[in-house]
Amino acid sequence: MAVVGGAAAPPLILKLLLSLLLCFNYSSPTLIQAGKWEPWEDRYPFIREASSFSSSSSSSNNGNNIKTYDYIIVGGGTAGCPLAATLSQKFSVLLLERGGVPFANANVSFMQNFHIALADTSPSSASQYFLSTDGVFNSRARVLGGGTCINAGFYTRAGPSYIKKAGWDSKLVNESYPWIEKQIVHKPNLAPWQRAVRDSLLEIGISPFNGFTYDHIYGTKVGGTIFDRFGRRHTAAELLASANPKKLDVLVHATVQKIDFDTSGKKPRAVGVIFKDENGNQHKAFLSKRKGSEIIVSSGAIGSPHILMLSGIGPKAELEKLNIPVVLDNKFVGQGMSDNPLNTIFVPTNRHVEQSLIQTVGITKEGVYIEASSGFGQSGDSIRCNHGVASAEIGQLSTIPPKQRTFEAIEAYRRSKKNIPHELFRGGFILEKIATPLSRGNISLVTTNADDNPSITFNYFSHPRDLKRCVDGIRIVEKIAKSKHFTNYTQCDKETLDKLLNMSVQANVNLIPKHTNNTQSLEQFCKDTVITIWHYHGGCHVGKVIAPDYRVLGVHRLRVIDGSTFEESPGTNPQATVMMMGRYMGVKILRERLGRAAGL
């Protein structure tokens, strides 16, 4: 227990001390040099508020005093940050991010606050929630660094077959992954819950054990993490430290309204970007007229098709319905959306469980991945007893069938939960995720306001193969929960376990269904308890919206580089490959434009 002046420090004093540490940038990616903390503003001097932007430049060589950029990147997320850092080595780059910085945000920076960041639905939150038409609550990142700021941190590469199918140069891929890993990836200190899952996976035959590896291999493994040994998160935003600070401008709270086009030629030509700053004032950034200059959209699987449609590229009828001038009619924009469905099982224990997010994974031949989290529901001062990955407050506690997950239902659950001892939520979750879902959905515009979410549909389990895989996955989870390693870990005798299970039912915590030999019952369980692990992708597919080089079909000087281009989610968790893609495409663009002079 902390001691101040020889006496035990009350919780209020401890919270004040934490606040002081945050004020001194303890949660930012600081450097210790000569015994001094380096504030993030010193390390990233090129990051500014959007309101500071000026389109005029005394050093402009275009004759009209307007500042232009060789590349304008829309979206400072998982792909956008490494892409900007790489392109800035040789060219001027403007990176526009609608959210703020992650560095002094305790909800982003500390693993212990993972669930709080997702539960925060305020306008300034790093997480923007949305409710798909399926009834499943979900989140989009709204912060520099994108999804790496709000995810569970697990880092694992895509398999060789994925790389080949994507048409990527394997040599450059294998150079690009380590560029990420050397800067922000760590080997985890395996938590007890994660060890129990690892040993149980091996006990039930998910083998061999592949040890600690970034590689995607059948069996059980321990992967990397973007949380360091102190539980501090390292995000894609930190990759900007590798940028050329003289050639990079990063604007935060810069919400892009649309891409501007010159439509006087045979094909529309991207010429600039119109964006709104934190005060609501509008600005326009101009693209250089130099050959090779481009606007690159890296706003994610929801944001990128959304921006294209708001800019006039998409299904003609849908655009005209909202009086958006049609720049290019493309019926495939926003189509083919997919989200990997997740189902979770709660395993109660009779003692404290160390907090952990995903560290170990079972890669099965049944087409499902098995992962785990623990310890996020047992704190008495956790906001409204929020239970992390499976939390009712963010629509993640799958005790209510999707279509019934209204805000009113969640509020009612929250109120009733106040009377339940928080000790009941000691334990953790075993997660079962469908690897390559065949079910497909779409996004469509609701308004022309860039701040509003579009309408999003994933059609979970609409394909029968997805449902069969979920049933197989739940049966694997049942075997894990009954394995000797888990029963040893929980240290519950039968009487105690039965008591915990009965209390958990009363608390509406999701448990293993009782009739797992009944396929029809398990199919209904899968449908009723489906949630998300935020691995949605698609909407700007290769061959339909973009070419293999990621240039938008039918338009000059415009590319899309992010997870919206994926047919499948890479590896067990996509963040490694999305960051790699940003670096990979940055190097590839420089080499195409400069040849050997790229020097990378």
Automatic annotation (TrEMBL):
<keyword id="KW-1015">Disulfide bond</keyword>
<keyword id="KW-0285">Flavoprotein</keyword>
<dbReference type="GO" id="GO:0050660">
    <property type="term" value="F:flavin adenine dinucleotide binding"/>
</dbReference>
<dbReference type="InterPro" id="IPR036188">
    <property type="entry name" value="FAD/NAD-bd_sf"/>
</dbReference>
<dbReference type="InterPro" id="IPR000172">
    <property type="entry name" value="GMC_OxRdtase_N"/>
</dbReference>
<dbReference type="InterPro" id="IPR012132">
    <property type="entry name" value="GMC_OxRdtase"/>
</dbReference>
<dbReference type="InterPro" id="IPR007867">
    <property type="entry name" value="GMC_OxRtase_C"/>
</dbReference>
<dbReference type="InterPro" id="IPR051871">
    <property type="entry name" value="GMC_Oxidoreductase-Related"/>
</dbReference>
<feature type="binding site">
    <location>
        <begin position="97"/>
        <end position="98"/>
    </location>
    <ligand>
        <name>FAD</name>
    </ligand>
</feature>
<feature type="binding site">
    <location>
        <position position="143"/>
    </location>
    <ligand>
        <name>FAD</name>
    </ligand>
</feature>
<feature type="binding site">
    <location>
        <position position="563"/>
    </location>
    <ligand>
        <name>FAD</name>
    </ligand>
</feature>
<protein>
    <submittedName>
        <fullName>Protein HOTHEAD isoform X2</fullName>
    </submittedName>
</protein>
<dbReference type="Pfam" id="PF00732">
    <property type="entry name" value="GMC_oxred_N"/>
</dbReference>
<keyword id="KW-0732">Signal</keyword>
<feature type="domain" description="Glucose-methanol-choline oxidoreductase N-terminal">
    <location>
        <begin position="300"/>
        <end position="314"/>
    </location>
</feature>
<keyword id="KW-0274">FAD</keyword>
<feature type="signal peptide">
    <location>
        <begin position="1"/>
        <end position="29"/>
    </location>
</feature>
<feature type="binding site">
    <location>
        <begin position="534"/>
        <end position="535"/>
    </location>
    <ligand>
        <name>FAD</name>
    </ligand>
</feature>
<dbReference type="Pfam" id="PF05199">
    <property type="entry name" value="GMC_oxred_C"/>
</dbReference>
<comment type="similarity">
    <text>Belongs to the GMC oxidoreductase family.</text>
</comment>
<feature type="binding site">
    <location>
        <begin position="574"/>
        <end position="575"/>
    </location>
    <ligand>
        <name>FAD</name>
    </ligand>
</feature>
<feature type="binding site">
    <location>
        <position position="256"/>
    </location>
    <ligand>
        <name>FAD</name>
    </ligand>
</feature>
<feature type="disulfide bond">
    <location>
        <begin position="470"/>
        <end position="526"/>
    </location>
</feature>
<dbReference type="GO" id="GO:0016614">
    <property type="term" value="F:oxidoreductase activity, acting on CH-OH group of donors"/>
</dbReference>
